[in-house]
Amino acid sequence: MMRCRMKDKFQNKTGIIILAAGNSSRLGRPKQLLEYKESTLLKNTISEALKVENVFVLVVTGANQETITNDLNFPELKIGLNTDWQNGMSSSIVKGLSDVLNINPDCEQCIFAVCDQPFVTSLLFENLIIEQDKTKKGIIASAYSETLGIPVLFHKKYFKELLDLKGQEGAKKLIKKHSEDTVSVSFEKGNIDIDTEEDYFKLIS
């Protein structure tokens, strides 16, 4: 029932942008390709995003682009290459949002996600969309470990500010700046991400 209502109400309004351009310097190998749940970390996130009705999903690649792209077999998936990935998270946000707006200029809102939060689910993405529709707030962030963060939904009124981000600036800058226009949804285990071999060992052990 929920998915039917979403199909009617959110047709072609939402893009999900998965940021996967980094070189995993702390890990020493591409975290995007780490085996997880008979898949990989990146493909797990993509699969959860594609379960959401009436969104379009785009992955931003960068470092190890060819290896990562060759591992993806989702016909409906859009892929963007961030050639400036070394310039920080902001470059991937700008690239992803620019590509989404080229694909669908009528996009009303975008969700930004990363590939190394193994417990992300389609339900979380749906909850972000539903909460925005319910509250009409411009930013819907995930809440975990006494902080607000990614995955996070931004209404189109913040697209220009997102496109103006520089260097290591990320979504948290706008969440803090516009706290009065931000609400949250709970993301259990959202604090778990994979940056090191120790992180990965804990996940799979």
Tell me the strand percentage band.
15-25%
What class do helices, strands and sheet pairing give? alpha/beta
- Count of DSSP H/I helices: 8
Shape assignment: globular
Order of helices and strands: HEEEHEHEHEHEEHHEH
Counting DSSP E segments of at least 2 residues, the number of strands comes to: 9
Count of domains:
1
CATH superfamily: Spore Coat Polysaccharide Biosynthesis Protein SpsA, Chain A
Major sheet characteristics:
7 strands, mixed
User: Cα distance, first to last residue?
Assistant: 37 Å
Mean pLDDT: 91
Q: What Rg do the Cα atoms give?
A: 16 Å
Could you characterize the architecture of this molecule?
The chain is α/β, with parallel strands linked by helices. The chain has one domain (2-204): Alpha-Beta Complex (Spore Coat Polysaccharide Biosynthesis Protein SpsA, Chain A), CATH 3.90.550.10. Helix content is 36%, strand content 23%. It has helices spanning 2-9, 41-50, 65-70, 89-103, 122-135, 159-163, 171-177, 197-204, and strands at 14-20, 35-36, 39-40, 55-61, 78-81, 109-114, 139-144, 147-155, 182-186. Strands 5-4-1-6-8-7-9 form a seven-stranded mixed β-sheet, with helices on both faces. Strand 7 (139-144) and strand 8 form a beta hairpin. The longest helix is centred in the middle third of the chain and has 15 residues, at 89-103. The termini are far apart.
